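Protein modeling request. Please complete all fields; requests missing the sequence field cannot be processed.
Requester role: graduate student
Desired output: 3D structure, token encoding
Chains: 1
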Amino acid sequence: MNREALELLLTDVAAGRIAPADALLRLRHFPTEALGFAAIDHHRELRQGHPEVVFAEGKTVDQVVEICSRIAERSGRFLVTRADDSVGTRLREAFAEAVWDTVGRTVHLNSSPSSEATGAPVVIVTAGTSDIPVASEAASTAAAFGAMVERVHDVGVAGLHRLVAATDVLSKAGAVVVVAGMEGALPSVVGGLVDVPVIAVPTSVGYGASFGGLAALLGMLNSCAAGVTVVNIDNGFGAGVAAARIVALRRGG
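Delivered output (253 residues):
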């Protein structure tokens, strides 16, 4: 239940249009709903502006569908991350309007979308094409959290002229998410070009000595550019949420 719905319910009770007992019935699963295998935080949207996000890895398909059904019943939307083909297929069968990003492995439903997002966009930048799956997770997440999103792909440090060609896009950003594997150098370069927060996402892309993204993570943590922060390896979701919140604050949302 979001803030507007709760305010409307309380107003109707105060005006006598809804009996307190009926209002209590509507709130029977607020703030949490216990399913045995999950305790859904229906209070999350009231606190943070977005329903609880479902991490699909480690859950059965039936568990994911059940959790999403309960969230959608009360908020009209949900976001699932790390959704494999079986989860994506079942959710699309259950929710025809859901958007399934097979590259970023996200499924997003918003049955009552608000007006288009305004303000400066979140710009998602990748060092290489191999980084696109993590970048797609970041992009889908930022969009689900209400941000406009623009993408710039394959502009890594091995060919900096490609990044220079994208400076017009970068200059309009409200926040930048930079996704890179290998040595993870790109966020430092971008951090030296823009005056907005840069969120670096190390990926597990690289040869043996990259240690599954650890080399990129350490390189980003040691960035010489100011204003660069770092999320965990392959954590496009965390970067997308952070960037969306940053641009929301900038536009006063």
